[in-house]
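User
Class, as today's exercise, I want you to study this protein, comparing sequence with structure tokens, and judge whether sequence predicts the tokens.
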Amino acid sequence: MSEFFSMGGYGSYIWGSYAITAIAMIALLLATLRSLRNSRIERDQLETVLQARRPRRTKKAPKAS
């Protein structure tokens, strides 16, 4: 089993590379999730502003001729 982890003397480089890659992938995932959350918050705020500015449309009764 120790031969597997030492990988012919290059284990520290290989496992270090895996660790750095895993950390980078987790950081990218967290940044993406944070950006998604911020985008949703911004979208909700913009929709609220749009709702406040949009005039209410009322249905008009048809004119009698």
Remarks:
- The CA atoms of residues 25 and 31 lie 10 Å apart.
- DSSP finds two helices and no strands in the chain.
- The mean pLDDT is 90.
- The longest helix spans residues 11-53.
